[in-house]
Amino acid sequence: MRLAIPAAMLLLTAATLGATTLTFDDLVGQATLPINYGGISWNAGWEHYDFEQPPFTPSSGATRVYNNAGSEALLFSFLAPDARLLGAYFAGLESVTAQWELYNDGVLVHSSTVIGLSAIPTFLPSGYEGTVDEVRVLTSSGFFVMDDLQFEASGVVPEPGTAAIVFLGLGATLLYRRLKR
């Protein structure tokens, strides 16, 4: 019983912590992003592609996302409560700029710095430590790509392997204690 409490605390910690990086590399070809892909609800217009097209260089792998909405705000919302945006990589035409606007319960809580884009993917951090539920990507035109989106979300269920390892360790410890007696 003494081990049950630490094991439960470990599972709770694994369920609430940990950054997620969406590389988009499990998506192939060119198509619209699935609506609730990667724990995020993507608004209309977000697409992905995995073929070479300079200067829209991916940060990793081959697939990246884009939205040709021009200079309109491009939206996505986190499905888990208490999410925190860490940032993402952007690349595109050198005349294009990008910036984050972060919202919580419909209220603007932070605007990030503005970066200029190039063929070399550049990380745009959110610059905000608080939680958000909606993210707006502001660009000066639609000629950009985004890759390796990083965020943290509470309530994220740990991978099945994490739980299996915890329970395997717990079982081994109990077996060891029983054999020791």
pLDDT under 50 segments (min length 5)? Answer: 3-16, 156-163
Rg over alpha carbons: 20 Å
Total beta-strand segments:
13
Task: Specify the helix fraction band.
Answer: 10-25%
Secondary-structure-derived class: alpha+beta
Query: Oligomerization state of this entry?
Result: single chain
Note the main sheet: 6 strands, antiparallel
How many distinct helices? 2
> What is the average of the pLDDT values?
84
Measure the end-to-end span: 16 Å
Give the DSSP E fraction (strand runs of 2 or more residues).
Answer: 35-45%
How do the SSEs run, as a string of H and E? HEEEEEEEEEEEEEH
Shape: globular
Task: Explain what this protein looks like in three dimensions.
By secondary structure, the protein is an alpha+beta fold. 19% of the residues lie in helices and 36% in strands. It contains 2 helices and 13 strands; from the N terminus they run αβββββββββββββα. The protein has helices at 4-16, 160-180; strands at 19-22, 31-32, 40-42, 47-49, 64-66, 74-78, 83-92, 97-104, 107-111, 115-116, 122-125, 134-139, 144-153. The strands form 3 sheets. Strands 3, 6, 8, 9, 10 and 12 form a 6-stranded antiparallel β-sheet that branches. The chain has a 4-stranded antiparallel β-sheet with strand order 1-13-7-11, with no helix packed on it. Strands 2-4-5 form a 3-stranded antiparallel β-sheet, with no helix packed on it. β8 (97-104) and β9 form a beta hairpin. The longest helix is centred in the last third of the chain and has 21 residues, at 160-180. The protein is globular, with a radius of gyration of 20 Å. The two termini are 16 Å apart.
